[in-house]
Amino acid sequence: MAEAHQAVAFQFTVTPDGIDLRLSHEALKQIYLSGLHSWKKKFIRFKNGIITGVYPASPSSWLIVVVGVMSTMYAKIDPSLGIIAKINRTLDTTAQGCGHCMSSQTKNVVSGILFGTGLWVALIVTMRYSLKVLLSYHGWMFAQHGKMSRATKIWMYLESVKPLMKESDFKRMTVLAEDFAVSLGPKLQWYLKLKSWWATNYVSDWWEAYVYLRGRGPLMVNSNYYAMDLLYVLPTQIQAARAGNAIHAILLYRRRLDREEIKPIFLLGSTVPLCSAQWERMFNTSRIPGEETDTIQHIRDSKHIVVFHEGRYFKVWLYHDGRLLTPREIEQQMQRILDDPSEPQPGEAKLAALTAGERVPWAKCRQAYFGRGKNKQSLDAVEKAAFFVTLDETEQGYRKEDPDASMDSYAKSLLHGRCFDRWFDKSFTFIVFKNGKIGMNAEHSWADAPIVAHLWEYVLAMDSFHLGYAEDGHCKGDPNPNIPYPTRLQWDIPEECQEVIETSLNSANILANDVDFHSFPFHTFGKGLIKKCRTSPDAFVQLALQLAHYQDMGKFCLTYEASMTRLFREGRTETVRSCTAESCNFVLAMVDPTQTVEQRLRLFQIASEKHQHLYRLAMTGSGIDRHLFCLYVVSKYLAVDSPFLKEVLSEPWRLSTSQTPQQQVELFDLERNPEYVSSGGGFGPVADDGYGVSYILVGENLISFHISSKFSSPETDSHRFGKHLKQAMTDIISLFGSSANSRK
């Protein structure tokens, strides 16, 4: 076979005249180009290392400083206050000790360069410290700002649970909290403060280790989340072509990331940067199962992807002739996989179910059956791939004739699929459906949703506005018959392992079939109208969620809203406790027919301001939940029990919410292209008897919601909650219209 021949660099045969060496020039060329590509990447990283190493200065600024110093020296002015003269004498002494003699002019030049370099380094250190001090200031978010004490955070916790507890339970919790604040709390806080002095971030490593990696339950539904395609636009219905463009766009993003060309996200215009550390493990990353805890495996580079189709695994190289494959060449490779008639090997088809089930059986199975031979080689190919791709056999996406059913099916397919056709351990699985619709399933431990959303925005924009398609729906350009075919991964899976696979698949199917999903676009109004009402769009949606939940359940519940903490180095998330005394007062006023519009509107504004204040506190490191979590971890290390902390961390979040931010609005220009709106993404329910709600405010006139719950809970129903949410949104916005009319 031609591809087998190209894979061999040289061959030899023994003849009567000796050894006849037959070189394969094509293979040697590929080796040379591959090495050239690697050295280019090393050079770019070296160059970027120098540039970032001297930030906020630049390498050229060194020359400016040195030339400035030398100029003043030749003008008979000493800018060093005698330091250059001391360097001069030291050089003279050193030269004499070595038996060398330096001319006066040489000593002056060397002394000037050394002083100029020292001055340049001192300026860099000073500027860095000044930037650190400036960026540590978060007062721009508040009218008044100050650091929050441990006692204040405990009081804030009590304030957040008071609306949810009976009077007797709240008194008991208050006693526990007050006792903790004066007894065990200060001791735990001392250890935590010690860690904050030593570690870059006192929360993030423990959060990753204990919340994510030590979880022994399935990642599928419970932890992984998904991202959807554009809502209305389908640029091509050719599955391989859509895969070609999108995979190429993902690889272009990876190249920009490798070259450190992706600019940080800024707040306050373009003044305050957010930490970009989470981007580091986006590609070439896989979660590795362990019996007690998982680990994250990240390699520096990967030149292939692994593609799953109809129960088979294929390895696809991403480079040819020392360059990245073009979209048309990737389409060709995807079509070759789609056309491949081979059958799955025994145990291969449902192998990925191991990543969908419980972690301990997968860890034991991996150690017993995937530690050697072809199984190890194939598993390495999957885990060390740049990312994982699934060519799905179903058709998904929004359909006008049946919007609810089509979106619900689309969401469930992205969240769990058939439980064996996504590799849930990979940093992300890119999914291409039969009709050309695409999506993504992402593992959560390595980074949070905004990081994946940033990649996804780039991919959708690049696919739609830059790469494009030919008139016949194929990728632009020509196929290349010289590219080797994708190679099948080989497996030797014994019957004992196949039994574990079936067991994992059965438990995963039970979990997947229990997920009740409702995903829908809300068109009635968007953030444009909300902002005209002079209120925060996020606070508006959160209060609508509180009203909807009360109308759905007849009670309030502990509510989780994720807020980012990337104003801090290596920051991840903090919790905004959206159910407050103020939000409860507003909700009760909305269901009380005796309350006037003005009274309801006043309570709404109070609740909205409280929510915005809590969100700012969370963003600026003054939230309460991550702090209490870290105190709990310290207590476990010290082997001491805290009834207060134990109760705090055991409280269920029956309403878990998250907003997906739009970070690159300029990529789409929705004024010119109003149909290119995103569907956002979603996640599974956090509590068995609760709801998970994700939403994205797209442009000025659309909000997409993703609601999840479990069929097994008699209390929840995602579609019922969706109806209440739509009504709550409409009822709240009508307050502003009614108030304006009454004033007239």
TrEMBL record:
Keywords: Acyltransferase, Fatty acid metabolism, Lipid metabolism, Membrane, Mitochondrion, Mitochondrion outer membrane, Transferase, Transmembrane, Transmembrane helix, Transport. Residues 156-727 form the Choline/carnitine acyltransferase domain. GO terms for cellular component: mitochondrial outer membrane. Pathway: Lipid metabolism; fatty acid beta-oxidation. It is found in: Mitochondrion outer membrane. GO terms for biological process: carnitine metabolic process; fatty acid beta-oxidation. Its EC number is 2.3.1.21. GO terms for molecular function: carnitine O-palmitoyltransferase activity. It catalyses: (R)-carnitine + hexadecanoyl-CoA = O-hexadecanoyl-(R)-carnitine + CoA. The active site is at residue 444. Belongs to the carnitine/choline acetyltransferase family. Residues 1-47 form the Carnitine O-palmitoyltransferase N-terminal domain. The chain crosses the membrane at residues 50-71, 109-131. This is Carnitine O-palmitoyltransferase 1, muscle isoform. Signal peptide: none annotated. It is a multi-pass membrane protein. Gene3D superfamilies: 6.10.250.1760, Chloramphenicol acetyltransferase-like domain, Choline/Carnitine o-acyltransferase, domain 2. Pfam families: Carn_acyltransf (PF00755), CPT_N (PF16484). Catalyzes the transfer of the acyl group of long-chain fatty acid-CoA conjugates onto carnitine, an essential step for the mitochondrial uptake of long-chain fatty acids and their subsequent beta-oxidation in the mitochondrion.
